[in-house]
């Protein structure tokens, strides 16, 4: 089941928040994906240290680009 998106209109969003607070509508939260954590660990264990380091460097460069 997909989670419904929150309305963009301010009045509709306010009504939905009130409905959730008064328990007239259930508050649907995203389901956590614990499988992703397991897959990430399994992938990290399968990679060689050299490959892991290369991936980490690429990720760090994407997060913190050099300022010129």
Radius of gyration: 21 Å
Number of strands: 0
Distance between the termini: 47 Å
Q: What is the helix fraction of residues, given as a range?
A: 55-70%
Element order: H for helix, E for strand: HHH
Largest sheet: none
Arithmetic mean of pLDDT? 83
Proportion of beta-strand residues: under 5%
Number of helices: 3
Low-confidence stretches: none
Derived from helix and strand composition plus strand pairing, the structural class reads mainly alpha
How would you describe the shape?
Answer: elongated
Quick take:
The protein has three helices and no strands. It has 68 residues and is an all-alpha fold.
Q: What would you note in describing this structure?
A:
By secondary structure, this protein is mainly α. It has a domain of 37 residues. It has three helices and no strands. The longest helix has 15 residues. The model has no long low-confidence stretch (mean pLDDT 83).
Layout of helices and strands:
Blueprint: H1 10-21, H2 34-46, H3 49-63
Label this structure with key terms.
68 residues; mainly alpha; 3 helices; 59% helix
